[in-house]
Amino acid sequence: MQKEFKITRVFDAPREVVWAAFTEPEMVKHWWGPKDFTAPSIKINLRVGGKYIFAMQGPAGSEWDKVMYSAGTYKEIVPMEKIVCTDHFSNEKGDILPPESYGLPANFPKENIVMFTFESMGDDKTKLTILYVVDEEVLEIMNKVKMREGWESSLDKLAEILE
After folding, report:
1. How far apart are CA 39 and CA 84, in angstroms?
2. I want to staple 53 with a disulfide (CB 3.0 to 4.6 A). Which of 94, 107, 128, 156 is the partner?
3. What is the number of helices (H) and of strands (E) in the chain?
4. pLDDT in tens, 81-121
5. Which residues, 6+ apart, have CB-to-CB distance to 6 below 8 Å?
6. All structural domains of the chain
């Protein structure tokens, strides 16, 4: 049975600014990754069929101090409104790596589809929705590995830079 993994956040910024924060590499570098993580490399080819490769690195001396990569391919882009893309763990070239290489169970999908929607709320506010539709078993894994907390922490950083 399919389940939704959904995160919604309202930012105090116009939709154009939130869109740019997701589509311009220099902006993404400032917020990608949970608190205390950095984004040493962000590559974005924003077109249908184009790819992205995002790197993040945890604090020195932590269990996450090596550079980790995620990547995917853009499937649908409606400027200022929606991005649909694949999402997978990768190497620095964007090649798919098995989820086990990042400590996830073998039954975690090698690739997921994620949809980002950007809705103008008036008064210079934007509602962002992040949506994965996954099997119940995958949802349990996402919850166990604290994927929501990771996204929320990254979005907290984004909210700070948008102020």
Report:
1. 22
2. 94
3. 4, 7
4. 999 999 999 999 999 999 999 888 888 999 999 999 999 99
5. 129, 130, 131, 132
6. 2-162 (3.30.530.20)
Token output for 29: 């570098």
Please enumerate in sequence order all residues whose Cβ is within 8 A of that of 112, keeping only pairs 6 or more positions apart, or say none.
86, 87, 88, 132, 134, 138
> Which pairs from 83-90 meet CB under 8 Å and 24+ separation?
83/22, 83/23, 83/115, 83/116, 84/113, 84/114, 84/115, 84/116, 85/52, 85/113, 85/114, 86/111, 86/112, 86/113, 86/114, 87/111, 87/112, 87/113, 87/114, 87/132, 88/112, 90/53
User: Given the DSSP bridges, would you call strands 82-90 and 126-135 parallel, antiparallel or unpaired?
Assistant: unpaired
Model pTM score: 0.94
